[in-house]
């Protein structure tokens, strides 16, 4: 059976549309404006204990837009970097940018000087909004960029009194209120003191609305051009899936701990939530689990957005396990592979099945989802409405159901290309098909199983070994908290497997791990080397950085 035939049958079986759904707006700004009109007094964003309605957020965005246009002279098409954690300032700045037709460049606040210089110069950024804690690093980078305007905000800038004064004093007491270096920068509150008059920009479908930079796992980080059409199409596609919930999704409350500078959370909180007039609870620092749990303990949330490593950390917290999960109807997982054991533990703890999805920056980002009520643990779901897929082997030959190969995708959510990189765009989009670089298989029910990343595949004596498979197996061991598999050079086999392990039991040793693996996998997949670590290198979104582990191993042999 052909893969796309299985997909069409699956979509019909679970009630998904095969065609690209329509949406009632032509741009993200128009979508936002509809919510402001229809749900003006409804909560839009909560952060640091304060909730702002759609109308209140829009009024703030109007003042910011006015300042950007009249004082900073920003014009449609100018790039503005947003270098913030999950604070209410984030959506305010982004919505202001939409009002003026600016291109948002989402920037990781933790970037080094080198990374900032590369991204800002590649995008030719004109203005940046940054958190005070990261101004020092930005200041070092500025002389090597073309940035004209810097806006600095403190976490408490949008809080009302007396909360602002109390929290500000507490931050000062614990050393989390940095003294700011002198410089030609603008304090965020100044943006709010003027008028709310500005000339609005009417966006076209093909206008670039965001430059979303990839993680740079293969060479220099590239700017993915996401247009009004690609993001809006993906919002409509995602709505088609979650509209299958037993109760309406409108006005739901979502816990949003994943960083907004990542496309997964950006699309959810600034696309899907306004489309449903939903309420987002923003978590500025999801790594601080006690603070995270405290922020949501009095909230009856309907949707939870997370990923594997975050689910693990939360379930190790006793206070989290005591929360009220009675309203939780949908748990979304994406950004990295979800371990089967973690999914089962979450379901036992919360009573909610995790709906794992799959996507990438280049697809705005969702490609497939597990429809509510039809979740299949261990699978990345069914391709969403209007999304065609095919699976091809190394020779480019299309595979049938259960065949393993690279996933290729076609649909309205696929990026316009890489910013200023036509050759690299042509390498990944061939005849309209986005080549994802992910190795998958599709079963007879139309569900996608992610086997591994093409570039992470290990070849042992001519046999293909996929790290995700090995990691899934080893994490079933009761003493293994995390693990990561990479290939290391071997004169006989070409490559052999090395496993990095974070253990909860100090008595666990390499022999134990290897013995366990021998019971779980074929001999050529069993690790030849095991190294124990206190922690594994991870991105801010919680993905294990196999490339860093590979680089460390390579350095040892030089």
Question: What descriptors fit this protein?
Answer:
17 helices, 558 residues, single chain, 9-stranded mixed sheet, alpha/beta, 32% helix, 27 strands, 8-stranded mixed sheet, Rossmann fold
Q: Could you please describe the fold and organization of this structure?
A:
The structure is a single chain. By secondary structure, this protein is an alpha/beta fold. Among the domains are: 28-36 and 52-202, Rossmann fold (3-Layer(aba) Sandwich), CATH 3.40.50; 457-557, GMP Synthetase, Chain A, domain 3. It has 17 helices and 27 strands. The strands form five sheets. The protein has a nine-stranded mixed β-sheet. It has an eight-stranded mixed β-sheet with strand order 7-6-5-3-4-8-9-19, sandwiched between helices. Helix 4 (89-100) links the parallel strand 3 (79-83) and strand 4. Helix 2 (28-38) crosses helix 9, helix 5 crosses helix 6 (135-141) and helix 11 (308-315) packs across helix 13 (340-350). The radius of gyration is 23 Å and the shape is globular. It starts with a helix and ends with a helix. 48% of the residues are buried. The model has no long low-confidence stretch (mean pLDDT 92).
